[in-house]
Design brief:
The chain contains 16 helices and no strands. It has 317 residues and is an all-alpha fold. It has a domain of 163 residues.
Length: 317
Amino acid sequence: MTFYVLFFLLVQFICLLGFVLKSKDRNKAIVCCLILMILFSGLNYGKGTDYISYRNIYNDNLYSESFQDIGFYSIVNILNWLELDFNIFIFIIALFNGFLLYIIIKKLNYKILFLSCYIAGFYLYFQFNALKQGLSVLMFIVAILYSSRIIKLIFISLSISMHSSQIITLLINYTNLKRFLLIFGLLIPLVYFVDKYYSSYIYLNILEQEKSLYPILIAKSLFCIWIIKFNVKKYWIYIYLILVVLIHFGFIYFSRYADVIFLILLCEFFKVDQKFKKIDYFLILIFISIMQIGTLNIVLKDCILNKDIWCNYNLLN
């Protein structure tokens, strides 16, 4: 637990320094944070809820002939063919994440604030757990931020090849909102049926089953409502709030995808060409603090229950 606290304190302190420094030094702070993030996740050994699953996929070469998520499994197949250890695979994924974050941050107006938000609310999840989804959403954000059609085509294709759920994100971004909501509404009963009968993720009452998740959902929802006043694409906000309502009524399956939507929403927010007031900065910092506490609470809860999924961070051995 101590190692996690020290790491997050260090990178958030560097972000804070970068926030008050000049532009040139700010870029150095960003690079420094990204290097530390690559090392912390890339040298991780055995931590994260999905670590063992990914290790089994890699070592046993599972899904080697799968067409779904073909981009991700192609990386697995290539590294297996080169006879590289699973630890090398984890470090390469961390490098990919660091590179994608860097090219995303370059396109944003409020670079440090976005990086701080990512560290606080998404880093542990997307770079320790949902590796496929983490890479996929960053690739999709690159496609959104860059105007070149070639870049859009390449990164959208890569994004979908990493995680097929980005097809839904593609529909959200390029489809009329009302039309999408109609399709989305028709799909909800199907998703509910699949979750209820073929998955262990569906619960009837999130307040009873996932109490630790609920305060963060409230904080993110309030943040969404607050940023409506800024020049942000409103449909990302509406989609996220709809997902929160569905999660509240039992569709826990949507909690992962809600994080994808919220990260895209944050990029849209921090690229706005609009000056923040002091109160805006204050509220953003409060929000970052809430997300960071929520992330550390996951580790703390694991240590208290002696599950050792997160507790006692281990370097490669």
